[in-house]
Structures are given as C-alpha cells and as structure tokens.
Amino acid sequence: MLKYKEEIKEERKEQVIKEFLPYIKYTAYRFSWKLPRHVTIDDLISVGLMGLMDALSRFQPGKVKLKTYAELRIKGAMIDELRATAWIPRSMRKKIEGINNARMKLEKKHGRKPDDVEVAKSMKMPLKDYFKILQYATCSNPVRLEDFKNSKYADSDLNITECIADPKAKSPLSILEEKDTKKRLGGLIDTLPHKEKMVLALYYYEELTMQEIGRVLNITESRVCQIHSQALGKLKEKIKKEVKN
Q1: pTM to 2 decimals?
Q2: Which among 25, 53, 86, 192 is least surrounded, fewest beta carbons within 10 Å?
Q3: Between residues 168 and 2, which one has the greater pLDDT?
Q4: Residue 239's closest CA among 201, 231, 204?
Q5: Which strand (E) or helix (H) includes residue 164?
Q6: What is the secondary structure of 76-97 as a DSSP string?
C-alpha cells in the first residue's frame, strides 16, 4: 500500500482505488454465501467501491491509517447492503441453517435423504415448530410473478402482474410531476462532461456493472467508480442550486 502523509489528492484517487480493488473483490466473495438471489457479487463489489470512495472523501490523516479506515468502510458498506436486502430475522436464518445442517448429517449417516420427522427428532424440535421454520425458508427465496403463467393462457402474452391491482398506483398529477422532474434532471445531466454522462447512462439505464462500463469505455474499473462519484456529486450541487432558485 502507499504511504499516505497528506490528504488524498484527486489525481491519486484512481491509483488508490486500484490498490484496494483486490481487497474489495476478496471481501465480496467472502460474503457471497450470504447473498439473496436478487443480489449479485458484482452488485456487492460496486457497493464496496462506493464505500471506498466515501472513505477517501472523509479520511483525515493523522487519526488513523487510511488502510484501516478504508477497509472498515468497505466492509461496513457491504454489511449494510446485505442487511438492507435480507428481510428474514437473523435468529430465523440461524434456525434454517440448523435444519439444513441436520439434514446433511442424517443423509451422510444413513446414505439417503431423511424425512421431516427424522430431521425434527434429531434436533429435538417439535414438528409444529419445524414446519413453521420450513415455511420461513420457503418464503426466503423470492420469485418473480412474471415466471408464473396460467396454463389456460400459456400461449398468450398476458402477464400475471397486469391482472393485479396496484394499491400504490400514481395519480395523473403525480405522473406529470415525475415527468417534469425527470425532464429537469435530464437537463442537468446534459450539462455534465461527456464521459460522466456516458457512465451514468450505462450504469442507470443500461444497468451495466462498473467492470462492464470500464470495458465499454476502455478505462479501469476504479476510474469508472471515480467518474460515477464525481458525476453524482456535481448533480447534487446543481440540484441544490436549482431548489434555492
């Protein structure tokens, strides 16, 4: 790692980010077993990069080493993301893991898949409680309604979600206000430098990862993260000025 005696200057940030990338990826892969289906490792790496950028902007030399501070912020950002996406209580997740472990032990011992009664008995758990935990385990794997099709309309383009009333449907007025906001935001984005506009478009509209954007623009992943952070910072300032006016 570099020796940091002064504040991290803008031109050195890319080099610093490049140095921390291996740690970010290593940490993301360590957490990969905790990821819900709808969150990818690339998502977690992006969160780690944003955590690093936050650390670089907040770092104050002299109080603590940058390496220590940045690693804490990177790991903390990933943990916050996992907590935000995990809606099942930690205690329940531990019980689900306990059932899975007990099931694997019995299968290894008897050379066959155990039934529910055997698993519950091995855990000294009432069958009623056992099935309640299994119900949580089933609900912990979100599925998309779009994946289900009524056999009666299997050959049609009918989407099941189109048949469900939306209790949060927007009013015509709110739709107009949203369009106006998007138009204003689009105008502010147009004032940004070309490369910053490209990064925002590829990340938010094309939904590419930082790594994929780097390949498209022929720049490093760390540079993409830096440009993304700069663009968001400029937009925030522009929005503040517009609100005041």
Answers
A1: 0.38
A2: 86
A3: 168
A4: 231
A5: none
A6: HHHHHHHHHH--S-HHHHHHHH
Burial class for 212, CB neighbours closer than 10 Å (0-12, 13-18, 19+): middle
Structure tokens at 106: 């019995």
Token pair, residue 17, equals 């980010």
Ordered alpha helix ranges (H), 111-220: 116-122, 127-139, 172-190, 194-200, 210-217
Q: Domain 186-244 adopts which CATH fold?
A: Butyryl-CoA Dehydrogenase, subunit A; domain 3 (1.20.140)
Q: Which residue has the tokens 């770092």?
A: 59
97 exposure class (CB count in 10 Å sphere: 0-12, 13-18, 19+): exposed
Residue carrying the six token digits 């804490």: 72
- Give tens-digit pLDDT for 55-90: 888 877 777 788 888 888 898 888 887 776 665 666
Q: How many residues does the chain have?
A: 245
Q: pLDDT tens-digit profile of 31-52? A: 877 666 667 788 888 888 888 8
pLDDT of residue 1: 43
